[in-house]
Amino acid sequence: MLKVGELAAAAGLTVRTLHHYDSIKLLQPSARSDAGYRLYDRDDVARLHQIQALRAFGMSLSDIGLYLDSPAGSPLAVVERQLAALERQIVEAEQMRRQLQRLRAELAGGGQPDLSTWLHSLEQMSMYEKYFTQDELARLPMYHDEALRAQWKTLVDEAQDLIRTQEPPDSATAQDFGRRWLDAFGRGTGGDADLAARVNLMAEREKEAVGLPDAVMRYMMAVIGELKYAIWSRYLAPDVIERMRRHYAARGHEWTVLVGQVRARMRADPEAAQPESQALGRQWMDLFHDMVGTDPQAVAAFRRAIEEQPMLRKGSGIGDDAVAWLRRGMHKPA
């Protein structure tokens, strides 16, 4: 049997910690010496192993006590859980190793890794954690699908060719390319508007980190803008279209950030009941009116176009759920 000091030294803990575990009945020694010292046997050490393992999983001490007293908290179950976590870490580390080797080879050869390559490499970096959880990464095809990653590289190369040949953003060639770009973006984000919004936000805020050349980003925004203006022109008067062009030239970048903020608030406040959510709704309407104006006919025509033309929302990350959330917030009392 081990004395409290011996067990503390072996486990890398303090004696005070083991005393605390005893006081809250999380780990009580099986015996005491004639002098009253705590003595720990094999079963006690096994329980301490379980406690430390569950703490590493982020479980609170109170929850650990309840868990260990349940059928799911057997030593075998905890060890299996540790092994499963370790296996995931090994797989993730090996994936990261292979990806870093690919990055090193490409950079050493004078290449510039594309957006999807950097996306695939950022999993374990603190910056990336601002945008995606591990579960979300698993749902992001452009992150884990090799075929899609290769397609993105080809598209970026094509965009650079169009820039070099000075292809106008409103030409038929550029417009066809814009449709293929948006389709690929939809597949790369799994058709998930929330993931799309965060990819857009990351690309806007972390231009250098994501490896998407700024010239390509500006060109594609122009191409997609022309693609959408052609659709809006079926619904809106020429003066409204011109107003939209001026708006996007001056303030278009604000939409990416605002959509990202709306998505974050949707996760934090699904009912749009908090003042912060309603403030975002007012900010959205202010930006919208700067873009379209306040004429009721123009506003109604714009909304009809959005409802009837799915292409207008492609790549934006907005989605019907965000529109419904904004409307919910606007109808609540301030």
Describe the protein.
The chain has 334 residues and is mainly alpha-helical. The protein folds into 2 domains: 2-80, Multidrug-efflux Transporter Regulator, Chain: A, Domain 2, CATH 1.10.1660; 115-330, no CATH class. The chain has helices at 4-11, 15-23, 42-56, 61-68, 75-108, 115-121, 134-138, 141-144, 146-164, 172-188, 193-205, 207-210, 214-232, 238-268, 275-292, 296-308, 319-330, and strands at residues 2-3, 31-32, 38-40. It starts with a strand and ends with a helix. Mean pLDDT is 83; it is low at 123-127.
Summarize the structure.
The chain is an all-alpha fold and 334 residues long. It is built from 17 helices and 3 strands.
What attributes characterize this protein structure?
elongated; mainly alpha; 17 helices; 2% strand; 334 residues; Multidrug-efflux Transporter Regulator, Chain: A, Domain 2
Number of β-strand runs: 3
**Helix fraction?**
over 70%
Order of helices and strands: EHHEEHHHHHHHHHHHHHHH
Mean pLDDT metric? 83
Q: If helices are DSSP runs of H or I spanning 4 or more residues, what is the number of helices?
A: 17
Task: Describe the SSE topology.
Elements: E1 2-3, H1 4-11, H2 15-23, E2 31-32, E3 38-40, H3 42-56, H4 61-68, H5 75-108, H6 115-121, H7 134-138, H8 141-144, H9 146-164, H10 172-188, H11 193-205, H12 207-210, H13 214-232, H14 238-268, H15 275-292, H16 296-308, H17 319-330
Antiparallel strand pairs: 1-3, 2-3
